[in-house]
Each structure stands twice: as structure tokens, then as C-alpha cells.
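Example for tutorial group B:
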């Protein structure tokens, strides 16, 4: 034991600690370095903490993503994965309040993006908790199919053109729905939704489509119903209208601008003078859609009320005429607001170079 102590002391004597040149300050510095080398690295906990934080972040993102996917399925496809078959989407827009007990035709473009065709079985309006509408909701409606090229918007019966049964319709790509609707004391409802039942390759599916125009359906208060004409004829236009009304000779229209001709048409429609209305239609044979006899057979209820016309042609005189060919053009105007899609009123020039109104002018 003593031999061992001697060896240790001898070794210690040979270290720098025993040298006189090695001061007390030097010894203190060496001791601090030894302590540091024996301490656990401080950055290790920091690294571990960072790894844990990143792991928790990824777990949170995964959970949130799962919740979003679940909510998407609940609001859209009911039952099956949309990625495997395709989905229906609808072009939305807003509309002003409607007059009570009047019939309107709302055109809503719809698109199917599936690889296989979808066959529509039924379409209905539902409300909260997927309940069907009842008579107490004040909405009478029917869904139809429109021409795929028909612009979205609200139309009267004489403006909507041909409509078809939607049941068993096979949709591939783009098409257009028509919602024929009549309202009675209706207020907006955010739970109001379109429910479409369809099948793909024999498999039954359902989808809910949210549309602002459907949620916002409401009737106009009676005290806000306007009885004012949609447009006002100036003195010159009134003189032409009076002369044209007597003999329906298109030469009275010679020299009139497209805007003035359109105003005569709107004025005649508002006044219920349907002979003048038909006489203002284009007489170019390739553009005639129906005969005068067929026009006379159109029911009064399908022609649109003065109130409907007022809404249809709001801000019309602020529009501008855009000529698209030597004989065709349209008046672009904004019946709602400039932040929404414009409407177009089409006109056609006849063989004598006189502008006339196109059949179903609002597109």
C-alpha cells in the first residue's frame, strides 16, 4: 500500500502542478477545464426538445388534415370516395329578392369530372338535418335541364328557351340545371342545399351542393315592389314607337341605334303589346325560332310580369353595345352590380341594314 502511495506521489510530483512556474491562477484555469469536460453537454436537451416539438407538430397536422378530410366528405359525397369516381360542381351566383307568387327560372351550370358518365336519378332541395322542404317553407320548385350554353342567371318563361326532364339524364362534362321556382313569404336559409342522387356504373351515390342563390332565396317585401317601367323612351324613340305600333313597318326603325331598338322591345314587353314585341324580332329566316301564330299561343303567365321585367332590365340604359359580326351584336349591362356577371341583350341586323331583336335576346 505504501509502495502504491509513493508511486502516485512521485507521478504527481512530475506534473505541472508541482512546478514553481505553474502559478495558482494557472491551476484554477485547468480545474475549470476539467469540470467542463466532465459536465453533460448542454445542447443535448435542446436537440431532444426540438425533435419532440417537431414530432408533435407533424402529429397535429396529421390530425387536422384528417378532420378536414372528414368534414369534406360530410359536406360533399355521401358514402363513397370522390377521388375514385368523380364529383359534381355547380357555378354559383347571387340574386336579388323575388316577387311573391311569380315563377322564375334559375340557370345554374353544373360540371361532372368523373372518368365515367353519371346518371342523375333525382334532385331535391333540402334544409337542416337533410329534411325535405314542405309547403310551410313557401317554396314550390322543379328541376329541369337547360342548354349547356345557357348563361347563369334568372329568366322568365319566354326567355329560358327549351327545357328538358332531368330524370335519368346522363351527364358528361358540362351541362346546366334549371330551377323553376315560385316563392311565398320566403327568407334566406343557410342550411338550404341541393341534394343530387345519381349512379356511376350501377353504383348509387348522393352529393350535396351548396349554392348561394338557393340559400339566399327570398321574397321581396310588398312595400318595395316597383311599378316603374324598366326603361324610359325619349321623345324621338316614343315617336318611332307610336308610328311602328300602327303598321309594324320595320322602315320606321331605320337609323335607330341597337340600344333604341332594344328599348322599344322592352317598352312593348312591359306594356303587354305582344304584336309589337314579335314585330321587333329579327326577320332573317335563319334566325327565326318560332312563328307569329306560335307566339300568340304563349300564355300570359309565361311572358313575365312588369315587376320581373323591371328586375331583368335594371341598369339596362347604362349598358354598352358590342358588335360581334357584320350583322350581330349585343348590349352588355349589369342588372345587379358590376361585381357580378353581366347580362347580354342580342340584336341582329336585317337585310335592309336595320337592327332588330334576336329571339330569346337575353343570354
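The residue assignment follows.
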Amino acid at each position: 500500500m505504501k509502495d502504491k502511495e509513493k508511486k502516485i506521489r512521485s507521478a504527481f510530483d512530475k506534473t505541472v502542478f508541482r512546478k514553481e512556474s505553474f502559478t495558482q491562477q494557472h491551476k484554477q484555469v485547468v480545474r475549470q477545464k476539467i469540470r467542463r469536460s466532465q459536465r453533460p453537454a448542454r445542447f443535448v436537451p435542446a436537440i431532444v426538445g426540438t425533435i419532440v416539438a417537431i414530432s408533435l407538430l407533424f402529429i397535429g397536422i396529421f390530425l387536422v388534415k384528417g378532420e378536414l378530410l372528414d368534414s369534406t366528405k360530410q359536406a360533399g359525397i355521401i358514402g363513397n370516395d370522390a377521388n375514385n369516381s368523380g364529383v359534381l360542381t355547380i357555378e354559383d351566383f347571387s340574386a336579388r329578392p323575388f316577387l311573391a307568387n311569380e315563377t322564375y327560372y334559375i340557370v345554374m351550370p353544373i360540371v361532372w369530372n368523373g372518368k365515367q358518365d353519371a346518371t342523375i336519378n333525382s334532385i331535391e332541395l333540402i334544409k337542416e338535418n337533410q329534411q325535405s322542404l314542405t309547403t310551410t317553407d313557401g317554396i314550390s320548385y322543379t328541376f329541369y335541364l337547360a342548354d349547356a350554353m345557357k348563361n347563369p342567371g334568372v329568366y322568365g318563361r319566354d326567355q329560358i328557351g327549351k327545357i328538358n326532364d332531368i330524370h335519368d339524364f346522363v351527364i358528361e362534362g358540362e351541362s346546366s340545371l334549371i330551377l323553376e321556382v315560385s316563392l311565398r313569404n320566403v327568407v334566406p336559409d343557410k342550411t338550404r342545399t341541393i341534394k343530387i342522387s345519381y349512379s356511376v356504373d350501377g353504383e348509387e351515390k348522393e352529393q350535396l351542393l351548396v349554392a348561394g342563390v338557393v340559400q339566399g332565396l327570398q321574397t321581396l317585401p310588398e312595400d318595395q315592389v316597383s311599378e316603374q317601367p324598366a326603361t324610359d323612351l325619349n321623345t324621338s324613340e316614343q315617336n318611332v314607337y307610336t308610328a311602328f305600333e300602327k303598321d309594324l313597318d320595320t322602315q320606321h326603325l331605320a337609323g335607330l341605334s341597337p340600344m333604341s331598338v332594344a328599348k322599344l322591345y322592352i317598352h312593348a314587353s312591359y306594356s303587354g303589346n305582344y304584336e309589337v314585341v314579335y314585330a321587333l324580332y329579327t326577320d332573317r329566316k335563319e334566325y327565326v325560332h318560332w312563328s307569329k301564330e306560335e307566339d300568340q299561343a304563349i300564355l300570359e303567365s309565361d311572358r313575365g310580369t312588369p315587376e320581373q321585367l323591371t328586375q331583368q332590365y335594371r341598369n339596362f340604359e347604362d349598358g354598352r353595345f358590342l358588335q360581334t359580326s357584320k350583322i350581330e351584336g349585343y348590349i352588355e349591362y349589369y342588372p345587379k352590380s358590376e361585381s357580378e356577371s353581366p347580362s347580354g341583350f342580342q340584336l341582329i341586323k336585317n337585310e335592309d341594314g336595320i337592327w332588330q331583336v334576336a329571339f330569346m335576346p337575353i343570354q
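The domain at 235-362 is CATH 3.10.450 (Nuclear Transport Factor 2; Chain: A,). Compare this with the pattern of hydrophobic and polar residues in the output above.
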